[in-house]
Amino acid sequence: MPDEGEEDWECLGQARSHQRDDTIFDAEGEVVPLAPDLFPNEAGGAFTVCVVRAEPPSQPVTDDLAGQTPVRSGGHRSAMVSFTLVRPPLQPEVLGALMTSPAVIIDADVYLRPDLSSETDRHAGAPTLADSVLDGFVEYHRLAQKNVFMEEILSHLETPVLAGYADGRVLGGNEAFLNLCGYSRYDLATRNWTVDLASLDFQALQENVLASLLETGRTQELDTELQTSGGKFVPCHVRVYLHKDEKGHPLFFSAHYHPTTDSLGSDSPKAGSDHTFSDSLQYALKRSIRHPDYAFALLVMGIDNAEQVLPQIEDQKAFFEMLAKRTVKCLRTLDIPAYLDSEQFFILLDNVPDVIGAVRVAQRIQEETARAFKLGQSELRVTCSFGVVMAPRNYTDEKDMLKDATAALGRALQRGERQIVIFDDRQNNEAVQFLRIESGLRNALLENEVCMHYQPIVHLQTGTIRGVEAYMRWNHKRKGLLRAEWFLPFAEHSDVVFELEAWAVRKSCAALKRFQQIMGEGFFLGLNVSLRNALRLGFIEELTEVVFENALCPEAIVLEVREEWLKYFGERFSSIFAEVDKAGVGIVVDHFDATHISLADLHHFPLRGLKLNASLQNDPGVLASLSSIAGSTGLILIAPGVEDATRLCSLQEHGCTYAQGNALAPTMDEEALMEYLAEERG
């Protein structure tokens, strides 16, 4: 602010020059710099903020003036006009001050609070003093309702900004945020920040951050994914501020978005400060107590043989920074790392459903940190071990979790290098089993122990075989032939699932070409796909590439997806299904029982058919209704797992299109199926 305040007085002068003719205003105005008394903890020396007060002279009330202005006790008029003058650039911390000010001037643009007319000391019908001073601006500037007033203030911030209430409901956003998220102003005002504007993986994190903001009042930082109106996800680094009213009560919060192509949004090894980590751990623990279906994990990482390794390092600070950067690269953006002491790195894994998910993160970090560190002219190789605690496990105090995680790390360091130990013995046994199966599956792919089996799918009206469903099997050296349900649930927690399913697609498509040489080009193949692969960018392109390599028609491939996926990932699958449909590949919903998605919602997806759960197959009334709906929509109904003739007859009577199961044909390997099809055809 200039020493003489010339620009401020010029702005006040503009306000006075636009006053109404009948306004009595001849007092000198007073500029009060920074106004710390009115806006505690909001405006400070770093912000160009002041309050301009102008008080008219006290005058005896005459007959001429009576009825025109409010009369106060004592027979004199004693009132004051106040407005806040702000010169850009506007800072986030000052938003609360602006929202509690009667009027705001930002470089001569004037905005009045919509609740001015509700002041208790104002007589009905009397002109407000703020109106008297600023009324001339009405012709040139819009005086708005609450959300528009907020948006006008936010519009002076260059970065995308959203404002909302304490329960997460959105109040408004500036033009930059609307451009980023793709919502209209109306649609944005119907959303909730913690639910609608984040991907599923980050909703719990935003809920925790908002709770921490309201509890502590401290500015929060997080890395998240903004979910746009088109269902896309934009990685962003976000700072969240709490703004209070004159009495210190929470007024609203503002979230300031910084889109980033880097998933971390920062190269800082301390992506989460100590207090952020501690607050997040407390709220994750409280949430796990309130919601039994919510789980998270606490990891603590230590360097193997630290007493021998660390003395070799001259610049240990630089080494720990490099180690932290590599560690953070392996985390999701909702995970929070922090150094709580000089040699141990703690990580909060938010919303991890089971211990296997935590082990996978630890494995990724172990692989990343195993690469040589370049320190000056030399290289250093280190290995790391982990202690892990899963919650909930009857924990009520985060200090107990930290203690148990540290104890688990101690056990891991005693066992050798690159160990992962879970504090709970039962969970540790589960993790050990996962690691063995994962390692075994990688070896099985190398040693050709994985194979494909197929089950014919029969057209019920003609009794002919029209296609097959492919199943993966593991020909284990000691345990014999293992069905997919024995090992795939473990594989889906690991990147090995991508290798397995890529191999299965190549193997099955090559087999389908041979089947079609017997049965014709209309013979189709049903492929099961994991959720991780279905959501993976590039999966459809890789599938269609294999289809064309084998000279197959895309319509001969049918992907099977789970019904519950459509409930929890509906928006993402809408775009994925559009790609699949464009490629010509068919989609059927597997294990359909109408518990996760209604029949009325199925038209949102380009589906070819439904594979009915056994519960629906056993209900003739439901079957008849489904058959009628399928007939009108063009969907086909497939009944898997048919084991007896009675059910088969019922399915035929009620218009089911296809069926499969031992009552029709068993599951068999490729060679046996080729013989079976040849007999069927002959």
Using brief descriptors, characterize the structure shown.
682 residues, alpha/beta, Beta-Lactamase, Alpha-Beta Plaits, 4 domains, eight-stranded mixed beta barrel, five-stranded mixed β-sheet, 23 helices, 27 strands, globular, disordered N terminus
The CATH superfamily of the largest domain is known as EAL domain
Total beta strands: 27
Count of all domains: 4
- CATH class division of the largest domain: Alpha Beta
Distance between the termini: 95 Å
Shape: globular
Question: If you consult CATH, what is the topology of the largest domain?
Answer: TIM Barrel
Largest sheet: 8 strands, mixed, barrel
Percent strand? 15-25%
Helix content range = 25-40%
Instruction: Give the averaged pLDDT, no decimals.
Output: 75
The radius of gyration computed from the alpha-carbon positions, rounded to a whole number of angstroms, is 33 Å
Please give the count of helices.
Answer: 23
CATH architecture of the largest domain: Alpha-Beta Barrel
Low-confidence stretches: 1-81, 107-148, 262-272
Protein name: PAS domain S-box-containing protein
Domain GGDEF: 294-425
GO molecular function, one term: cyclic-guanylate-specific phosphodiesterase activity
Domain EAL: 434-681
